[in-house]
Write a structure and sequence with these properties.
Blueprint: E1 3-8, H1 14-22, H2 40-43, E2 48-52, H3 59-71, E3 73-74, E4 83-84, E5 88-91, H4 97-102, H5 108-114, H6 131-141, E6 148-149, H7 151-159, H8 165-179, E7 184-185, H9 192-231, H10 235-242, H11 246-255
Parallel strand pairs: 1-2, 2-5, 6-7
Antiparallel strand pairs: 3-4
Helix pairs in contact: 6-8, 9-10, 10-11
C-alpha cells in the first residue's frame, strides 16, 4: 500500500485545514503562494490518503470531502475549475463518530461513505500481551534490538493502564533506552509515576484484602455465637450443627475468645 499523503486533522489549525487538504488557487487569499498549492488530496492521486483523527475534521470540510469522495473531483480554495482525482481513503479516529452524529458534530452521510470496512483496535490497556511485541518493535526501529527488558520491569509495564496508549509506551521505551548503560531495561529506568502507581495499586489491593479478612472474622464470630446459643454451649452439638469437626470448632472458639463464656444463661 502506497501512502501518498498523510494528514493529522487535529494537528492543523481549523482555518488552515481546508486549504491544506484541498489545496488553493494562486492568490486565493492574503499570504497565499503565487503558484497556489495542490493539497493533500491531489498529492494522493493514484495512491492512498490517510486521515488521522478524522473526528476533528470541521463540518464544512466534511461536506467538501464527501463531495470529493462521491464525485472524484475537487475544487481548490478560490478555484472554480474542478480537478479529477482517484485515490483510496483510510481514516482513523479515537472518537465515537456515531455519538458525534447524534450531536450534529459529524455528518452522517460521510460516516456511511467512510464505513465500508471498519477495523476496531482495542486500547493497549486491553491487550497487555502486545506490550512485549511492541517493545521489541520499537527497539528494532531505534536500532537497539540487542537491548533486553528484565522480568520485573516487564511486569510493571504490563500492569500499568497506559492512558496514553501506544504513544505513551513508545515514549517510555525511548526514555529507558536513553538511561541504560548495560543493555538492559530495568525498573530504575522506568518513569517514577509508573512505578509509584504500581505500589499504590498493590497497597490498595492489600488494604482491600485486610478489609475482607475483617469482615469474614466478624461474620464467623456471629455465626459461632448464634450456634452456641441454640445448643446452650454444647460444643459437640454445635460442631455437628455447623458441619465441622470438634477440634476445628474448638480452635475457632479459641480464636474468638468464646471458650470461657456461659452459654447456659440467657445472652
Amino acid at each position: 500500500m502506497l501512502f501518498r499523503s498523510c494528514v493529522n486533522c487535529a494537528a492543523i489549525p481549523k482555518d488552515l485545514l481546508e486549504s491544506e487538504l484541498f489545496g488553493y488557487a494562486p492568490g486565493a487569499f492574503t499570504g497565499a503562494h503565487q503558484k497556489g498549492k495542490a493539497g493533500k488530496i491531489k498529492m494522493a492521486d493514484k495512491g492512498t490518503l490517510f486521515l488521522d483523527e478524522m473526528g476533528d475534521l470541521p463540518l464544512n470540510a466534511q461536506a467538501k470531502l464527501l463531495r470529493v469522495l462521491e464525485g472524484k473531483v475537487l475544487e481548490r480554495v478560490g478555484d472554480l475549475k474542478p480537478i479529477t482525482v482517484d485515490f483510496r481513503l483510510i481514516a482513523a479516529t479515537n472518537k465515537d463518530l456515531r455519538g458525534m452524529i447524534s450531536r450534529n458534530e459529524f455528518r452522517e452521510e460521510l460516516f456511511y461513505r467512510l464505513n465500508t470496512m471498519t477495523i476496531s483496535v482495542p486500547p493497549l490497556s486491553k491487550r497487555k500481551g502486545d506490550i512485549s511485541l511492541l517493545l521489541s518493535y520499537f527497539l528494532n526501529a531505534m536500532g537497539k534490538s540487542r537491548i533486553r527488558c528484565t522480568a520485573a520491569a516487564m511486569e510493571i509495564l504490563q500492569r500499568y493502564p497506559w492512558p496514553g496508549n501506544v504513544r505513551e509506551l513508545k515514549n517510555v521505551i525511548e526514555r529507558a533506552v536513553s538511561l541504560i548503560d548495560r543493555g538492559t531495561i530495568d525498573v530504575e529506568h522506568l518513569p517514577s509515576e509508573i512505578i509509584t502507581l504500581q505500589y499504590d495499586i498493590k497497597r490498595a489491593q492489600g488494604d482491600s484484602g485486610k478489609l475482607l479478612s475483617k469482615q469474614l472474622f466478624r461474620c464467623e464470630y456471629h455465626i459461632l455465637v448464634e450456634a452456641l446459643k441454640l445448643t446452650k454451649g454444647n460444643m459437640s452439638k454445635t460442631a455437628k450443627f455447623l458441619g465441622v469437626s470438634r477440634s476445628a470448632f474448638y480452635e475457632k472458639c479459641k480464636k474468638h475468645n468464646l471458650l470461657s463464656c456461659n452459654w447456659s444463661s440467657n445472652r
